[in-house]
Design a protein that fits this description.
single chain; alpha+beta; 5-stranded antiparallel beta sheet; 51% helix
C-alpha cells in the first residue's frame, strides 16, 4: 500500500476543510492524526484473521440476501437493497484495511529477516577473518619449526677431529666448549679455511694438467707426421699381403669399424671370425653400413656445444611449433623410431661344396634389443630355375624352422609386446620383409637370450659363451639347408619336364621298367591344400603347417590318373615329404576309402630309410616319386579284368608277383625285392 494511505486527517462531524481553515486555533483540538503503523502494533494478527473471515462470511450473506430480494421482485433503489448495499461497502472497506495491515506485517517481517541476515553475514565474515589469521599464524609457526640453516647441509668434520686439527686461534676451546653456537661458528671457519687450501691445490693441479696436455699435443703432432709414411709403406706392401693371403690392412680396418658395433653384433663378429679362423676356412665375415652415423650414435653429447647451439635450438623449436603435425604422423614417426636399425650390419658369407655362397646379413634393432637376418644365395653356375622352385631360395622360407619350431615371424623379446602396444603395431610379422627375420638362433649367435614359454622367467645376455656354443651347429645346419634346397631346385626342374631322376646309388629301389609316368608337377598353396577333400585327415592331424611347401603331382597310365598332394617340410630331407593320393579311374578313390591306396601311401611315406639313399639323402623326393609310379603300375596290373570284354587288356601284367592279393582286405604286393625283381607283400 502507498504511504499516502498510512495517515489520514479525521474531520469532526459537520463542516468542511474550508470552514475549518476559517475557524480559530481552538478548533484545531478536534483534528487528530491517524497512523496505520501505530495501529498495527496494537492489533493482534489472529484477531484480524478472525475478523477477516467474519467479514467475508457477512459479505457473502449480504450478497445472497440482495440476490433473494431482487429475485422476489424488489426494485433496484428500494430501502432494503440500499441498506444492505451500504453494509456491504462498509465490510468491503474493512477487508481492504485488513489487507493493507497484512501487507505491512509481511514487509516488516521481511525487513527484520534482512537485518538479521546482515548481522549473521557480518559475524561470519569476522569468523573467516579470524580463521585466516589463525591459519597464517600456524604456517608461520611451521616455517619456524622446519627452518634449516645452510650450514646444516655442509658435512663438517667431527668435534674430535676439529679440536685435534684446527689451530687454537680458530678452535678457541675455553669459549666453544661451553657455547654450542660459538662451536658451530668455529667449525664453519675451519671448513672455510680448509676449502681455501683445497682451491689453491686445485689451481696448482690445473696448471700442471695444462702443462702435461701441451706435451701430449706435441707428441701427437709428431705421431701425425709419421702417418703418411706409414700409409705409403702399407700401400707398398699390399701385393705381398695378397700373395701371402694375409690381408692385414683389411683386417685392421674391419677391427677399427667393429669398435662401433652394438654389443650383439660385436659378439657375432668376434665369434664368427674366431670360428672361421679355427674350424672353417670357407667362412668369411665383413661389416657394412654407415660408419659415420654409427660413430655419431656411440659418441657422447658434447656439453661445450650446448651454449653455442641455444639460439639454433630456439629457432628450431619455434619452427616446430608452427608446424602442427597430425596425430597419425606422430604415431608413424614413433613406429619408425621403435623399428629403427643400427646403421652397421654384419655380413657372413658361407661357401658350400658346390661353390654356392650363402650371404647372411645380420641387423640389430636398437630399441627392440633383438637381431634379425636376411639371406641371399649365389650359385657359381646358372641353375635351371623351375617355376615350382620359386619359394625354395627366398629369404622368407630358406631358413624357416632351421631349428624345430623357429619360424622367425614374431619377436622373441617379451618386452617388445608392450612397446608395440604403445605405437599401435599389431604384429611384427608385418615388418619382417623389410627388417629381417628374428630367428632364435640369430639371437643366440649374438649372445642374446630371452625367455620363452618353457624357460626361466628372466632376460639374460649370455654373451660370447652363448654365441660360441651355437656357432658350429648353426653353421652346419645352414650349409645343409642350402645344399638341400639347391638339390630340390634341380629335382623340381626335372619333375616339371616329366622326368624322375634316379641316381645310380638308388637304382635298386625300383625296377628297370616303369610304365606310369609323371604328367604334371606344380606348386600350390596351404589354403588350396586344406580345401582338398582327400587331405582332411592330414590337416586334422596337424601334419600340414603354413611353413611347409605344397605341391601337386599327377601320375598317368592309360586312362588312370593318380593325383598326389605333397607336403615338403622346411627340414627336408630330415623330415620326409608326405604324399596324399587320389586315384581317378573307374570313379574316384582315396587312401581313406581304398585299402590298397592306403598301402601305396604307406609305401611312399613310411619307408624313408629305404628311399633316402646315401647321406645326406637329397634324392629322397625323386625316389618317392619313382616308387609312387611303380606302385601305380602294380595297382593297375593286378586289378581284376572283366573276361566278357574282348580285346587286349588295358594294363597287361608286366610285373612279376608271387601273389596278386592277400588277406580279407585283398591287399596287393607293393614291396619290390632286389635283385630277384619280383613283388611281394610286406
Amino acid at each position: 500500500m502507498s504511504s499516502k494511505r498510512k495517515s489520514k486527517v479525521v474531520r469532526s462531524e459537520g463542516g468542511t476543510p474550508e470552514t475549518k481553515r476559517g475557524r480559530g486555533e481552538g478548533d484545531l483540538q478536534d483534528v487528530r492524526v491517524y497512523n496505520e503503523e501505530v495501529e498495527l502494533d496494537s492489533r493482534n494478527p489472529e484477531q484480524d484473521y478472525l475478523q477477516y473471515k467474519e467479514s467475508c462470511e457477512s459479505l457473502a450473506s449480504l450478497m445472497a440476501e440482495i440476490q433473494e430480494l431482487k429475485a422476489s421482485g424488489v426494485k433496484e433503489g428500494s430501502p432494503e437493497v440500499e441498506q444492505r448495499r451500504m453494509q456491504g461497502c462498509i465490510l468491503f472497506m474493512n477487508l481492504k484495511k485488513l489487507n493493507r495491515l497484512a501487507h505491512m506485517r509481511l514487509k516488516r517481517g521481511r525487513d527484520q529477516t534482512h537485518e538479521a541476515k546482515q548481522k549473521v553475514d557480518v559475524l561470519h565474515l569476522q569468523l573467516q577473518n579470524l580463521l585466516y589469521e589463525v591459519m597464517h599464524l600456524q604456517k608461520e609457526i611451521s616455517k619456524c619449526l622446519e627452518f634449516k640453516s645452510k650450514h646444516e647441509e655442509i658435512d663438517l668434520v667431527s668435534e674430535e677431529v676439529f679440536y685435534k686439527e684446527a689451530p687454537t686461534e680458530i678452535s678457541r676451546p675455553p669459549l666453544t666448549k661451553n657455547d654450542q653456537h660459538q662451536l658451530t661458528l668455529a667449525r664453519l671457519d675451519w671448513e672455510l679455511e680448509q676449502r681455501k687450501r683445497l682451491a689453491e691445490k686445485y689451481e696448482e693441479s690445473q696448471a700442471s694438467k695444462e702443462k702435461i696436455q701441451k706435451g701430449i699435443e706435441v707428441k701427437k703432432e709428431h705421431l701425425r707426421s709419421l702417418q703418411p709414411g706409414l700409409n705409403a709403406i702399407m700401400q707398398a706392401s699390399l701385393p705381398v699381403q695378397q700373395y701371402l693371403s694375409m690381408p692385414y690392412e683389411q683386417t685392421q680396418k674391419q677391427t677399427e669399424i667393429a669398435r662401433h658395433l652394438p654389443p650383439p653384433l660385436y659378439v657375432l663378429f668376434v665369434q664368427a671370425n674366431a670360428y672361421g679362423q679355427a674350424c672353417d676356412k670357407n667362412l668369411s665375415v665383413s661389416i657394412s653400413g654407415d660408419v659415420d652415423e654409427a660413430k655419431a650414435l656411440s659418441k657422447p653429447p658434447d656439453d661445450s656445444q650446448d651454449d653455442e647451439s641455444d639460439s639454433d635450438a630456439e629457432e628450431e623449436q619455434e619452427k616446430t611449433k608452427r608446424r602442427r603435425t597430425t596425430t597419425g604422423g606422430q604415431l608413424e614417426e614413433k613406429r619408425r623410431e621403435v623399428l629403427k636399425r643400427h646403421p652397421l650390419s654384419v655380413c657372413v658369407d658361407l661357401r658350400c661344396k658346390d661353390s654356392s655362397v650363402l650371404h647372411l646379413y645380420f641387423y640389430y634393432l636398437m630399441n627392440l634389443n633383438i637381431m634379425t637376418v636376411k639371406t641371399k644365395v649365389a650359385t657359381s653356375t646358372d641353375v635351371t630355375t623351375a617355376i615350382s622352385a620359386g619359394e625354395l631360395l627366398r629369404s622368407n622360407t630358406l631358413l624357416s624352422c632351421l631349428y624345430i619350431g623357429d619360424q622367425g615371424r614374431e619377436t622373441p623379446n617379451p618386452a617388445n609386446r608392450y612397446q608395440f602396444d604403445k605405437v599401435g603395431i599389431v604384429s611384427f610379422a608385418d615388418h619382417v620383409d623389410d627388417l629381417g627375420y628374428p630367428y632364435m638362433w640369430v639371437q643366440n649367435l649374438g649372445g642374446l637370450h630371452f625367455p620363452n614359454d618353457g624357460s626361466e622367467a628372466c632376460n639374460v645376455c649370455g654373451g660370447s659363451s652363448l654365441s660360441a656354443s651355437h656357432m658350429e651347429s648353426t653353421m652346419k645346419l645352414l650349409r645343409a639347408r642350402v645344399q638341400s634346397r639347391l638339390a630340390l631346385q634341380k629335382q623340381f626342374a626335372s619333375l616339371e619336364h616329366s622326368i624322375i631322376p634316379v641316381s645310380s646309388e638308388c637304382q635298386h629301389f625300383v625296377p628297370a621298367k616303369i610304365v606310369s609316368r609323371l604328367a604334371r608337377w606344380t606348386t600350390t598353396t596351404h589354403q588350396d591344400y586344406m580345401e582338398l577333400p582327400y587331405t582332411k585327415h592330414v590337416t586334422d592331424a596337424g601334419l600340414a603347417k603354413d611353413t611347409d611347401l605344397y605341391f601337386m603331382g599327377v601320375v598317368e597310365r592309360g586312362t588312370a590318373r593318380l593325383h598326389a598332394a605333397v607336403v615338403i617340410s622346411p627340414r627336408y630331407p630330415e623330415t620326409a615329404p608326405l604324399f596324399t593320393l587320389l586315384l581317378s579311374w573307374k570313379g574316384e578313390r582315396s587312401g581313406r576309402t581304398d585299402d590298397n591306396l592306403r598301402a601305396v601311401e604307406s609305401e611312399v611315406n613310411m619307408f624313408k630309410h629305404e628311399l633316402q639313399g646315401p647321406r645326406p639323402g637329397h634324392q629322397l623326393l625323386t625316389n618317392q616319386m619313382a616308387r609312387l609310379c611303380m606302385c601305380l603300375d602294380v595297382f593297375l596290373e593286378t586289378e581284376s579284368q572283366d573276361d566278357s570284354v574282348e580285346g587286349p587288356r588295358e594294363f597287361p601284367r608286366e610285373k612279376m608277383c608271387l601273389r596278386t592279393v592277400r588277406g580279407p582286405n585283398r591287399l596287393k604286393p607293393f614291396k619290390y625285392n632286389h635283385p630277384q625283381g619280383f613283388f611281394s607283400h610286406r
